[in-house]
Specification:
By secondary structure, this protein is an alpha/beta fold. Bound molecules: glutamine (GLN).
Length: 555
């Protein structure tokens, strides 16, 4: 019988419910249990794939190509597991399924209602996780906070689960926030009390409260929460904001969270947790280290969550190489207006991450041009690889018109283009090349050296590809195809010759980086950036277009 730990949020969102769930998953795995984590998102989109990063942050892609919430990235990184499509359920999916069943006549003339039809569909999807991933303990996190109208069907399903699978097989953890009142210098428990009352009114009594806060929580406050919320004192767990999120599992370990949860589930640990590696990771994260400055050139730089996995992957590589990653956020559209160049010139390495649509594209191409001409290490991720190819083609073909057909349908040099199988697709959702695809590494290239392998598999999310009609001509001018699909049709990794490190991958390596196992391409890139930073004298030369004008005085 699968057992469940349910996570709800109270007071405000974005206080780290996902990280808390991920950390508990790690604690349980350390005790020898097979765990999986599921996120229930109350919005009506079928998946976040079609949502703007401004709305939702990054879209995290799984092995099977599911486009999911960024919390799944936390789960995979903390627990070091691979999740599947069933691990992210949205109201959109649930309603679409219920309505299509109704159209098929599956309900035999019944009236279709939220309870029981929608809640049954939710429970059925929760049940799939244990089955499909062979997990013994499934952690389920509900997005948003208690009190949202949207999340009611999910909470009702969780409530029913307690009697469906048995009281001894479910634990409910409520993650709340304790606001700090500056004038009186105290933390307040009232919003927590209210959110627990709200949760109770829908029939869920939390077994544990994780009280997030920016300030230390004393014993009095804990006993107050315990008393007013009717939760055992040892199950009131303060979780103060920490210098690094990697400390969260250790903090929860220290607070005895896993022991409490296992006790509730009637389980005893199968092995002693071994935190040596993780403690070492935390120690390295806390150590003060020399900096390496990485410019990230994107169009959603105001919203850091939009590049969550890229930042994480950079940090993993930095930790392995003993460097603090200092992020320089550069807005690609600003570069086009002559702004933001100072950051680029200070950078030891430049990353152009994934993206869609033409806004800011020319700025990214300028950044690639700057990296190539000044021999600044460059890592292109998906769109960043396409940008690298466009920039190189403009130079190699002597035509400023080389482009991707995504941005210029009529370009005379479509160096990046749709694959024939993509042309007939009209739907936007879930129709890209998604998920794991194999890649054969070409011996003697930087990519092969970084991986130390002959073949790898990486996660994709894109519609456009390198246009093979340009393989030979660009190859002659110094473009190296270091990763190719096994059938030889698709360029997966490209590099620029005679450059310390200019490499782009058509896939998203950031999704497979783990805290203790940095992704080889990120590691190689950061190594190159460290070297470049060490030998750097002065700042790089600006692209020709920017030279003629005085950067600072431009509006
Ligand atoms: N827009 C590009 C494509 O669809 C790149 C996508 C991405 O960076 N994920 O191919």
């Amino acid at each position: 019988m699968t057992q469940y730990v349910f996570f709800t949020g109270g007071v405000v969102s974005s206080v780290g419910k996902g990280v808390t769930a991920a950390a508990l998953g790690r604690l349980l795995k350390e005790r020898g249990f097979r765990v999986a984590v599921q996120k229930l998102d109350p919005y009506l989109n079928v998946d976040p794939g079609t949502m703007s990063p401004y709305q939702h942050g990054e879209v995290y892609v799984l092995d099977d190509g599911a486009e999911t919430d960024l919390d799944l990235g936390h789960y995979e990184r903390f627990i070091d597991i691979s999740l599947s499509r069933v691990c992210n359920v949205t109201s959109g999916q649930v309603y679409a399924e219920v309505i299509s069943k109704e159209r098929r006549g599956d309900f035999l003339g019944g009236t279709i209602q939220v309870i029981p039809h929608v809640t049954n569909e939710i429970k059925q999807r929760i049940g799939l996780v244990g089955k499909n991933l062979d997990a013994e303990i499934v952690l389920v996190e509900v997005g948003g906070t208690v009190g949202d109208i949207e999340s009611l069907p999910f909470l009702e399903a969780l409530r029913q689960m307690r009697s469906d699978v048995g009281r001894n097989n479910t634990v409910y953890i409520h993650v709340t926030w304790l606001p700090y009142i500056g004038a009186t210098r105290e933390l307040k428990t009232k919003p927590t009390q209210h959110s627990v009352r709200e949760l109770r009114s829908i029939g869920i009594s939390p077994d544990m409260i994780v009280a997030r806060s920016d300030y230390p929580v004393d014993g009095d406050l804990r006993s107050k929460i315990s008393l007013f919320c009717d939760v055992e004192m040892r199950a009131v767990v303060p979780l103060v904001t920490l210098p690094t999120v990697y400390q969260v599992p250790l903090e929860l370990e220290h607070a005895g969270v896993a022991d409490f949860v296992l006790e509730r589930l009637g389980l005893t640990p199968r092995k002693q947790p071994n935190w040596e590696d993780w403690e070492d990771l935390v120690a390295r994260a806390l150590l003060s280290k020399p900096k390496v400055r990485i410019a990230l050139v994107g169009k959603y730089v105001e919203l850091r969550d939009a590049y969550m996995s890229v930042r994480e992957a950079l940090n993993h590589a930095g930790l392995a190489l003993g460097r603090e990653i200092e992020m320089l956020w550069v807005h690609s559209a600003e570069l086009e207006k002559g702004k933001g160049w100072e950051a680029l010139r200070e950078a030891d390495g430049i990353v152009v991450p994934g993206g869609f649509g033409s806004r800011g594209i020319e700025g990214k191409i300028l950044a690639a041009n700057y990296a190539r001409e000044n021999k600044v290490p460059y890592l292109g991720l998906c769109l960043g690889m396409q940008v690298m190819v466009i920039e190189f083609a403009r130079h190699a073909l002597g035509s400023e018109e080389a482009n991707s057909t995504e941005f210029d349908r009529g370009t005379p040099h479509p160096v990046i283009d749709l694959m024939p199988e993509q042309r007939a697709i009209a739907d936007m959702g879930g129709t890209m090349r998604l998920g794991l695809y194999p890649c054969v590494l070409q011996p003697g290239t930087r990519a092969a050296e970084a991986y130390g392998l002959e073949r790898t598999e990486e996660r994709h999310r894109h519609r456009f590809e390198f246009n093979n009609a340009y393989r030979e001509i660009l190859g002659k001018q110094g473009m190296i195809y270091s990763g190719i699909s096994p059938d030889g049709r698709l360029v997966e990794i490209a590099e620029i010759a005679n450059h310390p490190f200019m490499l782009g991958s058509q896939f998203h390596p950031e999704f497979l980086s783990r805290p203790n196992r940095p992704h080889p391409l990120f590691r190689a890139f950061i190594s190159a950036a460290i070297q470049y930073g060490g030998g750097k004298n002065g700042k790089g030369k600006l692209p020709k277009r920017e030279e003629s004008s005085s950067i600072q005085t431009r509006p």
